[in-house]
Amino acid sequence: MAQINPSILSADFARLAEEARAVEGADWLHVDVMDNHFVPNLTIGLPVVESLRKATDTPLDCHLMIEDPDRWAPAYAEAGAGSVTFHAEAAAAPVRLAREIRAKGARASLALRPATPIEPYEDLLPELDMVLIMTVEPGFGGQAFLDIMLPKIRRTRQLIDRHGLALWLQVDGGVSAATIERCAEAGADVFVAGSAVYGAEDPAAAVGALRDRAERAAARATSR
Ligand SMILES: O=C(CO)[C@@H](O)[C@H](O)COP(=O)(O)O
User: Fold this and answer.
1) DSSP letter string over 167-210?
2) CA–CA distance, 217 with 213 (Å, rounded to integer)
3) CATH H-level superfamily of 3-223
4) Residue 161 annotated among the catalytic residues of the structure
5) Which residues bind substrate (predicted)?
């Protein structure tokens, strides 16, 4: 089943609790943590995650776009994130880190920037609960979806299936009504959407509409 994770990067940060509750039918709330080093933008950190945890029942999917995730990522699991994603390009010891995150009770996920291939990480897949393929350069919401990432999504799905793993495959960046079907057909099953949800008049309805599109596209792809 397709999961839709609204990205609070496109929400009104002055009304975060309200904005989190506006999408309570969503599967997860995607929380973009940026440190102005790994990416050229600065957003939020642990205290906001702790507060969000109390403000909504929707599980938190924290995407750490930070340097030194080996030091910080386990603390996000302790702060209440149900899923913690760290970047392959930033982690010094990704296997140890994934194990630490899981030991704290959260799902462990590995993110890849657009120029980072999945193949070097094939042997690590059993240590993970999700792979995140960035479909824009990380740092900002509202960017155009990179179609050139579709082959990487397909290859990642093939690797996951070949190993018989139950990993989720997430895409993030430029996901909208116009692009979600291509992602689902390529094998993604978790979809982060910022502007397509928070830019909509009715964010909760936008979540439902995106999920319907993704599920129809996935059904078409499997019936081929
Ligand atoms: O991680 C990021 C950006 O780096 C994303 O989560 C964006 O926040 C998604 O926003 P849209 O592209 O959907 O507007």
Assistant:
1) -EEEEESS-STTTHHHHHHHT--EEEESHHHHTSSSHHHHHHHH
2) 6
3) Aldolase class I (3.20.20.70)
4) no
5) 7, 63, 139-142, 172-174, 194-195
